[in-house]
Amino acid sequence: MRAQRLLGMPRAHFAVLALAVALGLLACAIDGGSKSSWKPVPPQQWQDARGPVVPHDTFPSDCSLCHEGQSWNDIRDDFVFDHAQETGVPLVGAHAGAECLRCHNDRGPVAVFAQQGCAGCHEDVHLGKLGDACTVCHVESAVDWRPKAAIAEHALTRFPLAGAHAATACWACHPGAQVGNFDRASTECIACHANDLQRAVNPDHQAQGWVDNCQRCHLPTDWSQAGIEHDFFPLQGGHDNVACAACHPGNVFSGTPTACFACHQDDYRATTDPNHASAGFPTSCEQCHTIQSWAGATFDHSSFPLNGAHVGIGCNACHGGGVYRGTPSACYACHQGDYRGARDHVSGNFPTTCQDCHTTASWEGGDFSHRGIGNGCSVCHLDDYQATTRPDHEAGGFPTTCESCHQTGTWEGASFNHGGITSGCVVCHLDDWQSATQPNHAANGISTTCELCHKTRSWGDGSFTHPQFPITSGDHAGLTCQQCHQNRGSFQQFTCTNCHAHQMRDMNDEHDRVRGYVYESKACYSCHPNGQGR
Amino acid sequence: MRRAVLAILAALLLAPSAAASAPAADVRIEVRVTSAAGTSLYLDRGQSAGLAEGDRVQFRLDGNTAASGVVVAVSANGARVELDPNSPRPPVGSRGEVVVPDSRPGAAEAARAATGAGVAAGAQHPPWTHPPETWSQDQPLLAPAFGIPPEERESRFHGRAWLRFDGTWGEGDQTYLLGAVGTDATLENPFGDGGALRFDAEAFVRQSDVQDGLYGYDETRVRVDRLSYEVGGTADRPNSFALGRFLQNEFPELGVLDGVEWSRRARGGSRFGASFGWMPEPLTDFHSFEDLQAAVYFRHAFDPDERATLGLAYQNTWHDGEQDRNLFVLQGEVRPSRELSLRASAWVDLYTSDDVLKDSGPELTEAQVSGTWTAESGAGLSVYLFERRFPELLRDEFLQPPPREVVDGVLDRLGANGWIPVSKRVRMTGRFEVWSDQSDDGTNAELGASLRDALGASSDLSGTVLWADGSYSSGPGARLQAHKTFGTTSAGLGWQSFWYEQKDYGGNDSELAQHSLFGSLDIPLSERWDLSFLFDRSIGDDLDSWTAGFLLQMRF
């Protein structure tokens, strides 16, 4: 409410001027209208119309100290009564100007009521509520009884007048102040500031439940603005409209932690995508979350892109103990165990720069670049060497100079230089021998002296000559082995009659003149070793 | 013959010198203590008995005790004596003697009268022939004086009128203004029965702007503090009546009343009485006729001087016809000596099932116990204990607190004030208080010293350090004040600083420094007119305010 103004000045100022005029008129009226012969009595003087000051019995017996002449009513003109000297009771302030009979009157001996202190003469407009030590607030020496030490005295109550309260009229808090009623002013802020609370809509104090303990946010300097600056924790984003109690449970404001986790523990624990708790996510939420929303966290792991096998692993796998800062990005830091467990890595004094061979897809399948490596393969490939059965390197007494046969592309597909090797093929090629089916070497009892038939270029290039019997030309060209060697177990056995059986009569007829002729393959071969007739 | 003549001549010539060289004779003047006040004793002998300023007086006390003093002022038939330091005080009636040269006028006669007619000095006055009731002003004052009965006095109109203004201007156009004109007038004995018609009222304009005019007051009202006719209650009229609006006489705790009160003083000083009427709300304008009350009381005086009294009052009130308050007020005072006084009072409310917030039964709403001891040296100690609760009232008596505070709010204060003159000019003061309420507690302390006449005669310079510990703010403070009287004008000037820290504040900077320069000036303009000013300039953290006021008062 703006103060109304009259004639350009606040109405109260105008009113004071008007009241001053009123007082002047009152004074004139009193002066002019008084029909009494009474005039103001000089300080510490006496008026005969009211009778003597009583009691007199403690007065000095020298009457001439006060009286003169023939009448007791005549007081010496030079009478001066030093109340302090004569009675030991100094009269200060307004008391110094009071006439004697204000105290020494017909109420009885002044000593009786003077012993009651101020209350002996003065009405206690405070209704006994403020005790009897009047001079705590009032200054006795002043002509003005208005309290002048009140502000200072207020400092020693439970409500020192701090800030704007020091510039507030008493009656703003003590509505009865003008009649001396300072009784029981509540120190609860709401007792005086209920209107302020109603008006506080930004933020809405009522909705927030901020109806007491104003001092937690407001300083007593200016009610209209919260003295508290929440800049130590800006209330933005999702925090904009959160009830204070969400972060300050029990309206305990001091010592409230500013860490996100302090309030978002439940969010943290309830989050399943990803499961923060089981993944051992750090509780420094701000690393991934913004104050806009708990959902939609974005974590920038670009310093160590999580791809390949790193996509689904728990954070703790790399950030053990929830320590995220300073986590090394070197593979070996996490894969030390893998390294040690990996074949040959330690013994081969492999470098710990895992990324040289491995990708993030898997620890397995390390792609070792053999570039520049020309020997010493067995250091890594001894297992390969020992495990290789085709041919069985170990049994074959293969040299461990792997590089002699193998390329770095793969262990498989070794290319053996047969230069200078003219015998002992079966040592390496036993499998070939055993698995050969065209013809079945083993079944046919084909010699394991491979070099008899095979060249070193390829196993498939075996060149078998059938010196015992021409099979590459003549009538027998194109026959399969089995047509003659029906017993696969022994190529020593053969049959001629298998083909020539339906001609036995003919053969018999033809060979009736041949001595020792029998219709038997061996007999055939003995006479026809090259398959030609005789 | 010739030798005889020469001898006579020689004798005549030598006689004056011989007389002059002879030691002066002393005489003993009997004196009696007629009254005492402070450190002064008054004697029944003065210049007419040869006493003079500077004479030493030896008093005769019982036993071996001796008392002595020096005559510091003397009149024709009386003298004032200041006792020697550490001298015991002779009671009134004690006798003593003053040794004075018999050459002083009147000394020899007084001494002879004392020795020759000692009986006369202690003679009792014959019985009075005039009973007190027939005393008139032309009779000599040889007996206790009696005042003119109030009903025989001339009707007289007196009082005072005033104009006052108090203003406070603070930050953000925060303004509190109060202008008032008032009068406190008494018309004595208007109807010839010794009564007094009293009128005490004030018309005021009150204005406040808070928070840049957001809200405040702007009102003009007239408040009548008193409009009553009161009669009796004087020394010789044991009954007293009051009618109208007045503060209840015997038990002010019962409040201002629009009604009637009767009380009677018994012979021993005990009093009892009753009152009936409406209780104006003790707020801005004494709004009335909503709260009806009936009260009875009794105060027992254990001795005629009322050095020990014990009183009990009962008050029942109805607010707009509905039962409101059952209140018992107990009050006791004991003054076993000039040095010691004890005082206690208690307000006990009796609640019933009709009360909403309070449980049925009695509850101690307020209690005050205090004791003050003052030594002759000027040192003293005052100890006090307050306990205070909010009563459950229908009536408007104070700013209503939150209901929970009515239920469980309680304030206890235990404290002590002490003061001691460490020298003739230096006085030390101290105060200590602990308080607790339903939600907090604190300790306040103050230590000060004042130096009299530090700034010349009739001046006083004091300094105080204090620790304030409130519900919301706490911190140290200091105050320096000077006061000086120039003739009839007195002026005061002071500076005080506080460094508060707000409790429980959630922000960063909870400290508030505030300082103020304050002063007052009281000027008796004439026998009728007084003018006084006061001001306070406060500055500090977010604090910049002025308070100024004046009071112009006229006595009539």
Could you describe the 3D structure shown?
Chain A has helices at residues 11-33, 83-87, 110-114, 150-154, 170-173, 189-199, 205-208, 244-247, 260-270, 276-279, 315-318, 331-341, 377-387, 425-435, 481-484, 497-500, 504-510, 521-527, and strands spanning 5-6, 9-10. With 534 residues, chain A is an all-alpha fold. In chain A, 25% of the residues lie in helices and 1% in strands. In chain A, strand 1 and strand 2 form a beta hairpin. A two-stranded antiparallel sheet of chain A has the order 1-2. Helix content of chain B is 7%, strand content 56%. The longest helix of chain B is centred in the N-terminal third of the chain and has 20 residues, at 2-21. Chain B starts with a helix and ends with a strand.
Summarize the structure.
The complex is a heterodimer of chains A (534) and B (556). By secondary structure, chain A is mainly α.
How far from one another are the termini of chain B? 89 Å
Beta-strand content bin of chain A = under 5%
The ordered string of helix (H) and strand (E) elements of chain A is EEHHHHHHHHHHHHHHHHHH
Any idea what the radius of gyration of chain A is? 64 Å
Task: Count the beta strands of chain A.
Answer: 2
- What structural class do you assign from the helix and strand content of chain B? mainly beta
Shape of chain B from CA axes? globular
How many strands appear in the DSSP assignment of chain B? Answer: 28
Secondary structure topology:
The complex is a heterodimer of chains A (534) and B (556).
Chain A: E1 5-6, E2 9-10, H1 11-33, H2 83-87, H3 110-114, H4 150-154, H5 170-173, H6 189-199, H7 205-208, H8 244-247, H9 260-270, H10 276-279, H11 315-318, H12 331-341, H13 377-387, H14 425-435, H15 481-484, H16 497-500, H17 504-510, H18 521-527
Antiparallel strand pairs in A: 1-2
Chain B: H1 2-21, E1 26-37, E2 40-43, E3 56-60, E4 66-74, E5 79-83, E6 95-101, H2 107-116, H3 118-121, E7 156-169, E8 175-188, E9 196-209, E10 218-232, E11 239-247, E12 256-265, E13 271-278, E14 291-301, E15 308-319, E16 322-334, E17 340-351, E18 361-374, E19 380-389, H4 403-408, E20 410-421, E21 426-436, E22 441-452, E23 459-469, E24 473-486, E25 489-502, E26 511-524, E27 529-540, E28 543-555
Antiparallel strand pairs in B: 1-2, 1-6, 2-5, 3-4, 3-6, 4-5, 7-8, 7-28, 8-9, 9-10, 10-11, 11-12, 12-13, 13-14, 14-15, 15-16, 16-17, 17-18, 18-19, 19-20, 20-21, 21-22, 22-23, 23-24, 24-25, 25-26, 26-27, 27-28
